[in-house]
Write a structure and sequence with these properties.
InterPro entries: Aromatic_CoA_ox/epox, Ferritin-like, Ferritin-like_SF, PaaA_PaaC, PaaC
Protein name: Phenylacetate-CoA oxygenase subunit PaaC
Shape: globular
Helix content: 55-70%
Pfam family, one: PaaA_PaaC
Largest sheet: none
Oligomer: single chain
Radius of gyration: 18 Å
């Protein structure tokens, strides 16, 4: 299967002449959206969901930022940085919504910079060290596919704010998934070394798939995406043995705390600073 065929298959239902989401959609996605929590929606649960989704995006964006100056080519460095910026935009909107409905009045900076690792609710796959480029694109493929499937469902959420954030994110995540899929196929179907590294990356990611399936019931969608890409890349799908613990419960690897220290260092050193 060619890279273009994978693109057309995964992009089906998202026809748009714009190949990338970067640089598009600068209008406020929440303009005119009623911010009142709808009747029947539990504000506490809504806030918790928003924080978890925002934590996934923030931590993923920080890992992607590590590829700046390290990516194989300048074009890929720019692409990964812009994917990270898309995720940061999602995190900001979700943190803001959480602060509106959880009764604390916290802003996005309070969530991002002034919580400790044990307070974060991101899935552990997002926080693992960057590894090589094969691992970066395999992880991006898995997380983008998983997040996209969930956002497609959230676009019909009864909370209009979360629904609007999800609807905007669907377009971005479609391209994130496609970028990663094309690279996984290129590496898997490339040299012996790139094939070996991509296969190893799939095996590294496999133990964390169970946590993703537990967090949201989108197993079938993610499995179908991985199957398509693996077949096109000539890669076997790994058999995963789920690890114990869950980032959703605040149970993280030893890698999250140093990542957050780097992310939060300036804000904590100068908490009253303004632009």
């Amino acid at each position: 299967m060619s890279d273009d065929h994978v693109y057309l298959t995964l992009a089906e239902g998202h026809e748009d002449d714009t190949r990338w989401a970067y640089g598009t959609g600068f209008e406020d996605p929440l303009h005119g959206v009623d911010t009142t929590v709808p009747e029947g929606v539990d504000a506490g649960e809504l806030a918790a969901d928003c924080v978890a989704l925002a934590d996934d995006a923030l931590v993923s964006a920080q890992r992607l930022a590590e590829w700046v100056t390290r990516a194989p080519e300048l074009e890929e460095e720019v692409a990964l940085a812009n994917i990270g910026l898309d995720l940061l935009g999602q995190a900001r909107l979700l943190y803001s919504r959480a602060g509106q409905v959880d009764g604390t009045g916290r802003d996005e900076d309070a969530y991002a910079y002034f919580r400790d690792a044990g307070d974060f609710r991101n899935v552990t796959l997002a926080e693992l060290p960057g590894g090589d480029f094969a691992f970066a694109v395999v992880r991006l493929l898995v997380l983008s596919s998983w997040r996209l499937a969930h956002f497609q469902r959230l676009a019909a959420h009864p909370d209009p704010v979360l629904a609007a954030v999800a609807a905007k994110g669907v377009k971005e995540l479609t391209y994130h998934r496609q970028y990663a899929a094309e690279w996984v196929v290129r590496l898997g179907d490339g040299t012996d070394e790139s094939h070996r590294r991509t296969r190893a990356a799939l095996e590294q990611v496999a133990p964390y798939l169970g946590e993703l399936h537990t967090a949201y019931d989108v197993r079938d969608e993610v499995a179908d995406d991985l199957r398509q890409v693996a077949e096109a890349a000539g890669l076997p799908l790994p058999v995963y043995r789920p690890l114990p613990g869950s980032g959703r419960a605040g149970e993280h690897t030893e890698h999250l705390a140093p990542l957050l220290a780097e992310l939060q260092g300036v804000a904590r050193a100068h908490p009253e600073a303004t632009w």
